[in-house]
Structures are given as C-alpha cells and as structure tokens.
Amino acid sequence: MYKPEPNPQPLLPPELAKRFEQTIDRLHAHEPLDLHEKDLSALFEVIATRLFAALSHRSGCYFDGVSGMTSNIPSRRTIDFKGEMWIGRNRDQWTEPFHARIVDKRTTHQGLSITLTIGQDKAQGDLTSVLPPNEDAE
C-alpha cells in the first residue's frame, strides 16, 4: 500500500475538513445524510489527488467526484464508502471502483485515518496531516 510523504502545506480548506468531520459524526449517530452532497465528493477528489499524485500511471489525471456513493458502518469507529470515482486525463473520462475506509481515531488524538482504493491503487493517509492547525482548539 502506498503512503505519501507528509505534506507540510495545508491541502484542504479548514471549513471543508470540518464539514467532513461533522459528516463522519452524523453518520456515526445514524442521522439521515445526503451522501451526494458537494462537499463530501469534493473532499474525496482532493484526498485522491493528494494520495495518488506520485503514482506514475496517474500522472496527468484528475479526480472528478464519486457517483453512486453508499456508506456502511462495520464497526463503532469505522465507516466505509463505496461508489465509482470519475477520473479524467486530457479529454477522456472514465470511472473506476472507489472504496474509502475512514477510521475515527480522534479519541486517541490520532485524527481520521483514511484508506482509499481507486481501481487497483490503494493508499493511506491521515486527514489531519493535510490540515492547518485548528486555532480554536483548547
């Protein structure tokens, strides 16, 4: 499994990351949720771009959202998302199977662990490693 080098520059706008964390919290609370909301798909696009940027066969590709997204909660702190990720290069676009596993490790101050699989590629990262420090934290 590919693990990218830590990125010292923030990649995600803090409000998008906070919204993602709220989405995870709402899913854990079994609240009804629209999985196709713009921010969730946009976050997966950004994470895919970050995690797969160094793979040579993904060179020049862009990720353009997840269609048919579903979620499942296999355990108390884990959420799985599945669907089809739209990928493009030049003027071509296609879909590949998408799977994201989010493990909530915030109770141990380890953030949200993300394992992302698109097609045959698999990578792992931590949402908090791409975020700027939260100035509101105590």
Record the SSE blueprint.
Layout: H1 14-28, H2 38-52, E1 61-75, E2 78-89, E3 92-104, E4 112-118, E5 121-126
Antiparallel strand pairs: 1-2, 2-3, 3-4, 4-5
Number of contiguous helices: 2
- Largest sheet geometry: 5 strands, antiparallel
Helix content: 10-25%
Number of strands: 5
Widest sheet: strand ordering: 1-2-3-4-5
First-residue to last-residue Cα separation: 35 Å
CATH architecture: Roll
Taking all residues together, what is the mean pLDDT? 80
CATH topology: Nuclear Transport Factor 2, Chain: A
Quaternary structure type = single chain
Total number of domains: 1
Percent range for β-strand residues: 35-45%
- Note poorly predicted spans: 6-11, 131-138
Structural account:
This protein is α+β, with helices and mostly antiparallel strands and 138 residues long. It contains 2 helices and 5 strands, in the order ααβββββ. Strands 1-2-3-4-5 form a 5-stranded antiparallel sheet. The radius of gyration is 15 Å and the shape is globular. The model is unreliable at 6-11 and 131-138 (pLDDT under 50).
Attribute tags:
138 residues, alpha+beta, Nuclear Transport Factor 2, Chain: A, 5 strands, 38% strand, disordered C terminus
